[in-house]
Amino acid sequence: MGPLSTADAAGSLRQLSSDARVPVDRRWHLRKRVSDSPRISESDYLISFPIGKREKALTHAMDIRKFEIDLYWKRATYFWTFIGVSLAGYAAVQASSTIPNKGDLSVFLSCLGIVFSFGWYCVNRGSKQWQENWENHVDMLEDDVIGPLYKTVLRRPKPSRLSKRLIDLATGPSALSVTKINQLISLYVVFLWLVLLVKALPHFSLEAPVNWTYVVMIGAALLACIGFVTLGRTSGGSYVHAASQRKSQITLEDQRGHPIDSQIRR
């Protein structure tokens, strides 16, 4: 290795000084995180998928992308079921004049709706992340197999007449993201549940006693939402597997049911 240039030496000094300002345990955490998830270049990526395997890899990427899209809408249906039931229950409680403790039930249903709605929003973002992952794989792999089909977008030309433009505005296509709109709807539902929760709570007063039932329900909902964005994150590090394998064999038995050979199945 040749002598360091002035720029390299200055860069090394800057790196040492920056490392000195970071605590030791923090520097270890940063190095561990980077080593567990190393970055690769475009050439490294293409080397990982040589020409002989690229077609099969493209087929798998397109199939998994379709699978992720299918799961996306199944998950939306799952959450909408619980959100719809919670909304119907909240409306029934508010409309009823015979249900005791309407406030407690309304707060409980509001907290339940907030958890499901915010969970739906987080799941939408997670599903979108994996969908885009496989779409990016298709972008990278398709050129040498089928050409830039997925990256090539064909659109109808914009009409020149005003009447045609108005018709196109009302009935024509538009470059709108279905998943982004779905995420915005989920955020709107979260905001709606927050409004319903505030409506269900009694008027705030410093002289009123603390309602610990409400504190526990709202606190549990808040902790659940915090857990979605912290504990619910996808692991970005390397995986180490622990494997075990059991053995199975067939033994011969005599007329009384005793094994003939000495080796008994474990």
The low-confidence parts are 1-35
Would you list the SSEs in sequence order as H and E? HHHHHHHH
Count the strands?
0
Radius of gyration: 30 Å
Beta-strand content = under 5%
Instruction: Determine the structural class based on helices, strands and strand pairing.
Output: mainly alpha
Return the average pLDDT rounded to an integer.
Answer: 83
Largest sheet: none
End-to-end CA span: 60 Å
Helix content: 55-70%
The gross shape turns out to be: flat
Number of discrete helical segments: 8
Textual characterization of the structure:
The chain has eight helices and no strands. The model is unreliable at 1-35 (pLDDT under 50). It has helices at 6-21, 24-36, 42-48, 51-95, 102-141, 162-171, 178-200, 212-230. With 266 residues, the chain is mainly α. It has a domain at 42-154 and 175-230.
Describe the secondary structure blueprint for this structure.
Elements: H1 6-21, H2 24-36, H3 42-48, H4 51-95, H5 102-141, H6 162-171, H7 178-200, H8 212-230
Write a concise synopsis of the structure shown.
With 266 residues, this protein is an all-alpha fold. The protein has eight helices and no strands. α5 (102-141) packs parallel to α8 (212-230).
What features would you highlight for this structure?
single chain; 266 residues; mainly alpha; 8 helices; 0% strand; flat; disordered N terminus
